[in-house]
């Protein structure tokens, strides 16, 4: 790490220690001052010119600079500890920061990792669920993680007991990559029985945390880390969860992040199925029965070779349906545009497009926009 990068990290850490300064405030400040060093060198009058920086916050920033030496000393110690456990510290602006994670609300500006991200991790799916799964839930988590690993899809989860553990283990067992997002420092193993699993993940995957070394697995950390689980993924598969379970929080983050949500249906008389069945009932999640259901839904976001390996429906089509399929491609088209190209009325187009949608050949997007699956 260069001295310039090290200094910027220290300045960034100093700013993040200021009560009231978070991701959005940092972005506003950097947009105005361009570097973290310029921020801490700024005057009171310069600071209050920045959008969202109140007089109180400006004074807090100015006061914080007196603690620069102590922040630097603590940071040097942390870097030494990180080196001992072969961990890295990555900032939002570094090239190896996960691209998908950059595009969520409130991305972590600093992350700590053991293991290395690869290009394959751009094609990730989160598998989440209850810490107390049924036998059915364990079976499904293992099955889906296996099928995804075989398709070279990275499995993301939270290293918690239950569904998370099964998903990580299945991905590893089937020679797949897996990423674990934890709610403590990288030197704190939680749950303790997953220490060996933690170590196995780092051999062909990544363990990631936004918390400093030594941070305890406090209850409030886990809902917050769930935004990273969904943020690293193209979609989230909820296996089993109660209606108020942590996996439901992850699904809510996925909605905010414009990620796909999938759910496995369960027994209506079992508490662990309340959340998944509700997600399906509300239309929030797509009901899936195997990994191919997920891959078909995500096909346009995945590697071409993944999509090519998925069997396509071979339905008999009438002349109108064939005509519409020839007009549609992977670029979305409005219904009026399709009708004009097909020389058909809008109503006739809609009838045939609906049939094609039932056959799994066409996907309808909001605003009467259609595209081929």
Write the layout of secondary structure elements.
Layout (H helix, E strand, L loop, with lengths): L2 H14 L6 H11 L2 H6 L2 H4 L7 H10 L3 H17 L2 E5 L7 H4 L7 E5 L9 E5 L6 H16 L3 E4 L5 H11 L4 E4 L13 H9 L1 E5 L11 H11 L3 E4 L7 H11 L3 E4 L10 H8 L4 E2 L3 H8 L5 H5 L10 H9 L5 E2 H8 L3 H13 L3 E4 L3 E4 L1
Helix pairs in contact: 1-6, 8-9, 11-12, 16-18, 17-18
**How far from one another are the termini?**
45 Å
CATH fold title of the largest domain: Rossmann fold
* Cα gyration radius (Å): 24 Å
> Total number of β-strand segments?
12
Helix tally equals 18
SSE pattern, N- to C-terminal: HHHHHHEHEEHEHEHEHEHEHEHHHEHHEE
The helix content is 40-55%
- Could you name the ranges where pLDDT drops below 50 across 5 or more consecutive residues? 307-314
Dominant shape:
globular
Strand order of the largest sheet: 1-2-6-5-4-3-7-8-9
Structural class: alpha/beta
- Biggest beta-sheet profile: 9 strands, mixed
The share of residues in extended strands comes to 5-15%
| CATH-defined architecture of the largest domain | 3-Layer(aba) Sandwich
> How confident overall, as mean pLDDT?
90
| CATH C-level category of the largest domain | Alpha Beta
How many domain units? Answer: 3
